[in-house]
Amino acid sequence: xxxxxxxxxxxxxxxxxxxxxxxxxxxxxxxxxxxxxxxxxxxxxxxxxxxxxxxxxxxxxxxxxxxxxxxxxxxxxxxxxxxxxxxxxxxxxxxxxxxxxxxxxxxxxxxxxxxxxxxxxxxxxxxxxxxxxxxxxxxxxxxxxxxxxxxxxxxxxxxxxxxxxxxxxxxxxxxxxxxxxxxxxxxxxxxxxxxxxxxxxxxxxxxxxxxxxxxxxxxxxxxxxxxxxx
Length: 230
Hints:
By secondary structure, the chain is mainly alpha-helical. The chain is built from 10 helices and 2 strands.
């Protein structure tokens, strides 16, 4: 089962629990999903616990009789046996973002270049790449990812709070901090304007489409073997 399917099944099973058992089990769910553990292993264990609780519930046994007096203590002990979530942290994270952005940039450059060659157009515009443009892409990609990450984190925290309170009503739309998003957008635009205005201050390279494609392939291979497998 995929993680999404396991979460959906978990929600279905919770609806079959008594109010006390449901409150207890939801405390376990919230604890698991807010810990730094592997999500697949975590959801698999939650499904196993849900089935175990429902089987005991049919026999008149309550959650506290199975797992202990407090859900937090039980969850704390259980998460210790789960593998930690694989993440890219620190400097590697901020290297990976521009790495992927520049890989995509060179792939698009090669694609546009090959199409221009096929159409018989001039290659002067498509072959010339400014070093400053590459710097702008790298910095802009980090700012964009940071903005999106902050937005998604706020949404996730909001959903966890609602679920932790046992609220079955449709969740309201999260309150977007437009000021923060606006700041990131403005900073990104300023960087792009600076890059465009002073693009000739730093060296400008002439790169053939096949060279851009080669760089993109190297970037993709590097992303797989350096970042993705961590």
